[in-house]
Design goal:
This protein has 4 helices and no strands. It is an all-alpha fold. The protein has a domain of 35 residues. The radius of gyration is 32 Å and the shape is elongated.
């Protein structure tokens, strides 16, 4: 080792932060918001979070919302299934026919 170093001759290469020190990018960054939810919704998730090993209630709410986003919307499939079921239900068709006939007789 030298007793003294000449730092004016030192070459510095700037390559940014060391990879180990870089912050890891979050898949889903959390954002703090204020939101109003129904009391029974909050009570449900809080009671679920009291179970041993359960996640915090806010995390559970976030997961429920994410599940709604990630699932394909099947609303139209449900409507089609309901229509088909009702149209093949003779009791339902008879009740509709009775109501229609009552409406025309007035």
């Amino acid at each position: 080792m030298k007793a003294e170093y000449n730092l004016k001759k030192l070459k510095i290469k700037r390559r940014g932060m060391l990879p180990a020190l870089r912050a890891k990018k979050a898949d889903h960054a959390k954002v703090r918001i204020t939101i109003s939810l129904d009391k029974d919704v909050i009570e449900h998730f809080k009671s679920e979070s009291n179970a041993k090993g359960a996640l915090p209630y806010q995390t559970q709410i976030n997961q429920a919302l994410r599940q709604m986003i990630d699932q394909p919307h099947s609303g139209s499939d449900n409507v089609t299934e309901i229509k088909s079921t009702l149209l093949h239900d003779k009791t339902f068709i008879n009740e509709v026919a009775k109501r229609v006939n009552r409406g025309h007789s007035k």
